[in-house]
Amino acid sequence: MGDDDEENSRAKTGPTAGWVCRKSSTFLVRSWPEIDQTNRLADLNKRNSLSDNGIGDKGAKALAKALETNTTLQLLGLNTNNIGSEGHTSLANALKQNRRLQTLPADVAQKFPLSEEDQALLQRSAPEGPERELSFTIWDYGGQQVFYALHHIFLTEKGLYLVVFDMREIIGKSEFETKLKPEDLELLASREDAIGNLRFWLNSIKLHAPNAPILLVGTYLDQVKDLLKVERHLAAHKICAPGTLVIPPNGLRFFPVDNSSVDPERAAELRRAIVSTAAAQPYVSERVPLAWLKIYEELVASSEPYWLYSDLIQRASSHGQSRNETDDLVAYFHGLGVVVHLRTSPALERIVVLDPQWLLDKLSCVIADDLHAEKMFYDPQLRASGHIEAYERMRSSSIASHSILEWLWRKQEVTFLRDFMIANMLLSEWRFDEDAEEDEFLVTGLLSGMTEPLETPHFEPGLSCILSFDKFFLPNGVFHRLVAQCAEYASRDDVAGDDEPMTPRQNNAQAIMSFGANDFLLTVRGNVIHICIDKRAVQPALVIKLLVSMFREQKDTIFRKLPWELLLVSPTSQVSISHGKLAKAHQAGKLKRRLRDPSGGRTAYVSEFDAFFREDLGALDGDGDGKQVSSPVPVSPLGPDEDTHVFISHVQATGGDLSDALRCKLENRGLKVWFDQAHEGNLNRAAMLAAVRRARTYVLVLTKGIFASEAVKDELRCAFEANKPIVPVHENETHRLSYATFSEYIATTPSFCSGIFL
């Protein structure tokens, strides 16, 4: 191995999933057990995420090489967009042993097959016992930043994550000025960037998989001898949020690895930690029906990337599984991350994705950074198709026509893929071109690549506020999803009224648009989203409330455990004060009271914020409407056949936040409420229907697509048969994606309850 090859075989910094790491990606290690006669599924999916801020493909594979043995390892193509590309692959190689490499095109994700010898090597790392029955699969979820917005789908709790960093960058690149070639030194990130990227990946795992274990892996042990110095820097920068489950080795919080070493035992300690940590996870010992594993094996053996749910139901019935048991089966495997199945619309429900690689490949046809999309402009098939202008428009303005999406997806499951992107707020309808001959969409995943400065010469700043995420971090995708939500709402006829709607203009960090005659500017910077309303706006506080409500919809569907705070900015002193403190003081009439900003260093009078409360909208960060609530009437006690006063039936993806708000208000009035999110574990159909029968009243939360849910229809039918009082409650915030008109509800009402709205 030459000097260049040796250098390129090592790992730099970054999260990756799989044996291969790429900068800013995630390693996912899944483990499967041997199943015995007691129907014990010893281990169904362990995730291993390797986080990186410059590690690269070759470096990742070097690390994977130390963990595996005797196999051909697929090598991701080099990523040359100043993110770094050689480290992830050297990490992958360190997990394997010295075998030849095969070059593949760069992709957003890659599954790395492990041979029986690879599995045996990992199993031998475990002591005698059940741990030796585990088998593993490993994923690298790619290095393109545009895919960070998908973390909520692919980072799950049933996994083991490896977060990889380049120890040289943590120590500081200045210490290697005399040790590295100038071109190699240039590839190193600054300590600030390395720490920031490391913290980003740890925070993402903490947010989406808070109970999943994490192993930190530091590379370039051959060049870094002072490991305590690395440890001190990591400790000083507080890279982990409180409660992050990092599994430390002896004496350090990370595993140092030399990917360039030829010693087959160079990653032995890391291999042992992977196996022992994976084996200790509770889901490894979870018992499930043996038929479930058999069904899954048959699905995988079909080599199909996806199955129709109706066909899967038939296959499951041949193994004695009912429709309800099949629902549980699919929900279980979806929770493990081995299949993808969403139930928020009929189009999504009809498809079960067996190969997440297929789904990612399809999405990457639309969402890709400039480096990976550039080759498409020279694709002769694209030019011959007549869609080249549509593709250029999509890349330059993030606006995609239905025809270009259909062509990019080769007309394969277009409705499913479109609805999948819409459900995950990666795509939204764009209705600002009256002359458009077909449906158009804003591709939020492409907004991160729009760097052209946004000119706002006619905007006059007025009231402003801040969505602050300083208590944790601002995940990728929140801002761009908010832009898409705003654009879809702004184009509606009932919002614009008789006024011509403003065509939104946006880039990666700003967007200017309007709700009717109310113009506003959104800006993201660091961990805050700044909202500024034009001073000529008619209802500035209402715009703020709408924008905050849109974010809350995101939080409920995607970022459930993300802490945030609304800060109002004084129009006079520019001091930012918590909305909660201001609302309480303003309601109490303490206008002359001075409150402090989050840092405690600056103060402002409550009276300075009077303009935020003139519209009497209630809490700007909640569902209240500003009206006084009458005192609750006394609650009668439950009867012997009643467990709760109210059963709330809803679709989680579209009605979860509304239902939760309703639950809080009912419970505050002394009612006992059955609400599925308040129950731990997986609730099956029988448990849900039993809860309906033992509730005094059935409340149906009406949101878009409510009657497409088989679970809701089962609950509603049960309530009818049990003669329960049925109270429909509807989403009345028309800006939300969950809103639907009553004509839509009436048109889709099940036949067994056709008179529900009469």
TrEMBL record:
One of its GO terms (biological process) is signal transduction. Keywords: ATP-binding, Kinase, Nucleotide-binding, Repeat, Transferase. Transmembrane segments: none annotated. Pfam families: COR-A (PF16095), Roc (PF08477), TIR_2 (PF13676). It is an enzyme of class 2 (transferase). One of its GO terms (molecular function) is kinase activity. This is non-specific serine/threonine protein kinase.
